[in-house]
Amino acid sequence: MKPVISIKEITKIYHVGEIQVHALRGVDLAVQSGEFLSIMGASGSGKSTLMNVIGCLDVPTSGSYHLDDIDVSSLSRDAYADIRNEKIGFVFQGFNLLPRTSALENVELPLFYDRRHRIKNPQHAAREALERVGLADRMHHVPSQLSGGQQQRVAIARALVNQPSILLADEPTGNLDSRTSIEVMSVFQELNGQGITVLLVTHEEDISQYTKRIVYMRDGHILRDQKIEKPVSARQDLEKKMEEADAAAL
Amino acid sequence: MLQLSNLLKASFKSIMKNRMRSLLTSLGIIIGVGAVIVMVGIGSGSQKRIAQEISSMGSNMIVVFPSFSQRGGVSRGAGSFNRLTMDDADAIREEATLVEHVSAIVMSAGQVIGNGNNWNTSIQGVDPDYLNIRMWNIASGEFFSDRDIRSRKKVAVLGVTVVENIFGDLDPIGQKIRIRNTPFRVIGVLEEKGQDARGQDQDDIILAPSTTVQSRLTGERYINMINVSAVSLESISRAQEEVTAILRRQHKIDYGQENDFMVANQTAITEMASETSRIMTTLLGAVAAVSLVVGGIGIMNIMLVSVTERTREIGIRMSVGARGRDILTQFLLESVVLSISGGLIGILLSIGIAFILNTWTDIHVAIGTGIVLLSFTFAGTIGIFFGFYPARKAAGLNPIDALRYE
Ligand SMILES: Nc1ncnc2c1ncn2[C@@H]1O[C@H](COP(=O)(O)OP(=O)(O)O)[C@@H](O)[C@H]1O
Ligand SMILES: [Mg+2]
């Protein structure tokens, strides 16, 4: 089976004045369809840089990148934009929702740039995506009226709405408390269970335990690549937490 | 590119979400367009009024008035300033062949008492020809005759403003009035003439025989002016030459010496006035145009601030698939929509101001379609011109840099 993501010898050098910062020093990675992968590592190890390259938000200095068998490294700026629209759903640590704009309109945003009209009924698709993340009753709320966990679920719905090949998330639980983090992870697990490929960056060991494969990074290299045989179920953790809370209340 | 209607919708949404910012942005354009239209409207309004005045005055009119002169380099003193006399008027009347009507003008002012009321007005001593020269008519009663002039008869013809203030609804014909203690009998009322170009009420006047005013009211040998009408429009300049020659001889001015009077025709005077008002119009328009450009720069400022402020939004849009061109079009449309709606509001504003000025003040504003279209087009162009730079700046951003922007 052909991998969805195939990365070979990717490097990324940032120029800050006279200084060169080697953020990625030759990374190889292959991800199969349906995988749930987490990238772990200390701050500054190059996780976000790798994620941005995979998400076509940034261009690598050298190396090759194939997404769905398309050689992305040779594409134009506009084609990059189209790839982001059709094949990638990106979830950020800081949610990145449009302010003063309803959840529904935020989720519809990618479909506004759906040039080939892949999705026939944008409103309907946006509603469906919000239902999938359990926010059907908050459609007309603006971000300031939503909790952090709810905002992140709107962002996930936005990432899903264009039916992407891969779902990318850079520290999606970084701004959330532990309980809400588990909630968000259960959403990702559910989506992965429906067959969506998910890659997420985290520096928390607990969070990575909910994924099926962990890639460890250090100084722009991949250090270790490890399969998890039995991932923890976020839903079960959540139920356990609730029972504990109930017990404490009694 | 995406469908224009969709992008337009997005621009409208963004404008409506930032109402205050949008209003402030447009304000420069609103004021600029409004000012240009009103200023130019005021200018062309006064030009129109001057043109009306020319036709109401009779374009054959020639005015003779005294002027200060130096003979042989030595001033002949203040007394020599006003040197026109009744004899000068008679000489023109008798000798000039290209002149149809002649009237001496003796000006005075003072209190008029009658019917238990009093009123301050100007009193002009004129000759029977005066009404022909000014193309004026009697509304009721009659005007004085040559015999009245010769006998210095104490009769008066009133303007409607004077009638209203002294007699009210009473018929003034045959009534007695006292002008500075001299009794006059009212024999006629003038047709209403309205205001002149400077907003002066032309009906606030009393006409009386020139000789009567001279002997009873001014008591001076010299008269203020002589009004003359040429036999035809074509002969005006030759009539002027003729009048000049007669007066030079009357005043015994030697060859090579300057005139101590001036002969001007009405067209020249009004041309001068309309030239002044044309320059005023241009000046006012230019000042207003500057404010329009300043408004445009205001738009650019706000758009630049908006691009910076919305860098994250641009990043978000790009991360979900917006191309550079989509961002460019959206921002360009926003500034065009802002400046065009600003222009429309400015036009409505100027129409409102024109209505108010025309209804409640003496200022006459004539709004022309030309200037409305011009300033509207200008507003739209300003939107594109000043919106382009910030829009291009937004479109050129790298998605990840835009997202990271603090
Ligand atoms: N835009 C940039 N300009 C310069 N250096 C950068 C930039 N982005 C990241 N870096 C550097 O690249 C390295 C990797 O950063 P990053 O991928 O953000 O790490 P992580 O996400 O693992 O914390 C760091 O040393 C960081 O300082
Ligand atoms: Mg990071």
Oligomeric state of shown chains: heterodimer
How are helices and strands ordered from N to C of chain B? HHEEEHEEHEHEHEEEHEHEHHHHH
Largest interface chains and counts: A-B, 26 and 22 residues
Tally of individual domains of chain A: 1
Arithmetic mean pLDDT of chain A: 93
Structural class of chain B: alpha+beta
What hetero molecules are in the model? adenosine-5'-diphosphate, magnesium ion
Fraction in helix of chain B: 55-70%
CATH topology of chain A: Rossmann fold
* CATH-scheme architecture of chain A: 3-Layer(aba) Sandwich
| Count of the separate structural domains of chain B | 2
Mean pLDDT of chain B: 85
- From the spread of the alpha carbons, the general shape of chain B counts as elongated
Radius of gyration of chain B: 33 Å
Quote the beta fraction of chain B. 15-25%
For the largest beta sheet of chain B, what order do the strands appear in spatially? 4-5-10-7-9-8
Low-confidence stretches of chain B: 70-79
**What is the H/E order of chain A?**
EEEHEEHEHHHEHEHEEH
Task: Walk me through this protein's architecture.
The complex is a heterodimer of chains A (250) and B (406). Chain A has 250 residues and is of the alpha/beta class. Chain A has helices at residues 47-54, 77-87, 103-112, 122-132, 148-160, 178-193, 205-208, 234-249; strands at residues 5-16, 19-31, 36-41, 62-67, 70-71, 88-91, 166-170, 197-201, 213-218, 221-227. Chain A has one domain (5-249): 3-Layer(aba) Sandwich (Rossmann fold). Chain A is built from eight helices and ten strands. In chain A, strands 6-7-8-3-9-10 form a six-stranded mixed β-sheet, with helices on both faces. Chain A is globular, with a radius of gyration of 18 Å. Chain B is 56% helix and 18% strand. The two termini of chain B are 29 Å apart. Chain B has a six-stranded mixed beta barrel. A two-stranded antiparallel ribbon of chain B has the order 2-3. Chain A binds chain B through residues 52, 55, 57-58, 77-78, 81-82, 84-86, 90, 92, 96-98, 100-101, 109-110, 112-115, 158, 162, and chain B through 2, 6, 10, 17, 312-313, 315-326, 398-400, 403. The structure holds adenosine-5'-diphosphate and magnesium ion. Adenosine-5'-diphosphate binds at residues 14, 16, 21, 23, 41, 43-49 of chain A.
